[in-house]
Amino acid sequence: MSEVSLPAPVPAITPETKPFWEGTTQGKLLLPRCDNCGQLIWYPRGFCPECGSLHLSWTQASGRGSIYSFTINRRGQGDYRDVDAYALAYVELEEGPRILTNIVDCDLASLAIGQPVEVVFHDTGQGAALPRFRPRR
Known about the structure:
Blueprint: H1 18-25, E1 30-34, E2 56-60, E3 64-73, E4 86-93, E5 98-103, E6 116-123, E7 129-135
Antiparallel strand pairs: 1-2, 3-4, 3-6, 4-5, 6-7
């Protein structure tokens, strides 16, 4: 297994995303759900992109999903400039939303569309942890 150590850049935390980032520090994948239409929302924001409602509640997602799409990047930029290769993927959660993330703790050559994955959290050291996914064991 080829393990790549990825940087964990500190995200911009806004009042709308604060509950999400606080959840990550506790190992929870919290997502807003619209109280009006039931839509589970990714990326966390203060309104429902489906119906425009401002009435949202936070719910804990399972953290399980599957790889919807991915690419292997071999030339990083910014915080990733010193990483030789890493996987950037859309993971479709069991609950429906698709999250842009990294796939970690795996042999990059073994990744496949539809592969089951689970969330892991990489601490940024500054009040947030990045949700990334690894192949389900």
